[in-house]
Amino acid sequence: MHQQGPISPPRGASLRTRLTVPVLAMCGTLMAVMQTVVVPLLPDLPRLTHSSPGAVSWMVTATLLSGAVLTPVLGRAGDMYGKRRVLTGALGLMTLGSVMCALSSDITVLIAARALQGAAASVVPLSISILRDELPPERRGSAVAMMSSTVGIGAALGLPLAAMVVQYADWHTMFWMTSALGALGVTAVSWAVRESPVRQPGRFDVPGALGLAVGLVSLLLGVSQGGQWGWGSPRVVGLFLVSVVVLALWWWRQLRTDQPLVDLRLVTRPRVGLSHVAALLTGFAFYANSLVTAQLVQAPKATGYGLGLSIVATGLCLLPGGVTMLLFSPLSARISTSRGPRVTLALGAAVIACGYAVRIADSRDLWMVIVGATVVSTGTTLAYSALPTLILRAVPAEQTASANGVNVLMRTIGQATSSAAVAAVLVHHTSLVGGAPVPTLHGYLLAFALAGAVALAACAAALTIPGDAPGGTRRARGRTRGARDEAMEGA
Asked: Residue 305: phi, psi to the nearest 5?
């Protein structure tokens, strides 16, 4: 039997207790910053590292692959061995990767370092599980919404920050800065976050972890490299075949083992399974916004639509979206409390679709580009804030980290698929500008239409998720309040 964590901190809570939510939010933002800081470097890294553009692209691919594999694995480890312990380890690996990047210009070392940083993808699901264990219900919704929003906030902050460092300082300086921030995050978590007593004891499923790793790496490697290697090439087809076979065998074994890495019996429940489907579709729709906006505003003016902006200016265009995510996260928590998280998720997906409608209507004027991108970010805030709340309501307390890890994994698969789909659309719609192939405005509009259609599919998936039984939430609150009163009397 697992132990039940504290219901609520006393009114005169210590400074450490009051800083739990800000510290975890800082770590989530730092994780997102770490994932995006390398983007402005990509055009110059072949020259700086004396390597090919294909090799440099692995600095992004390695982080994607390791994050996809490690998120559900570390989530399960957190449920078993302690969420704060695993969270600190993930932040430590992220920081070590930054130090390695700061000390080296060798592309092999840099790729290995970025793979280590992929462990940070587990920060958000682990932190959400800690918040469930440590906070009372009346504070939990807003804290989880804030934690979910840190992904977008960090991405919006990371791009202009990295662009300014790259433009005005040596590129290694950026990684020294993230190393210092990572060390601060490890220290802050060790000091301010208590270890949760909620555990699910058992034996770690090593064969399940290895099978999931092989299956996911084969799938995501094929998706991310399909455009470069050729979708019909033997390598890509072989990777997809390996992925299908291995994941099918992995699924079969997970249903038959006593202590699986991922409890697929939970996944087959409509409230959990449909939440994962909605996460995949929302990840696809959200990621196209950042990918396409950055390319569109940097396109040369000779295209007739491009604005010819610098990398720094491009990052600043995305900054309002990050600020909006910060401001709207409390609203999403209130909607989830009053109407239920599935309504918040459906509303968020619909708002994302509206944002892409704005982009299709006008993508020539800078202010309209910023408005459209900000509307998409607003919808992403609502959707991403609702997804972990849906998972928290549908799974036992001792399985929240692993279940949220799978949900984040589905977002990652959606983002990888979005990247491949957008690239395929833009490659097939190009024109020569100054002798170089450049995507046409029609190609960008098709990418917006595709992302908007996927957002509407996410909205439909959200509306099919079963809601709470009438009065169920109210009864749950009454039980929680009664348990809290008993705990206070006992104290």
From this structure: -130, -25
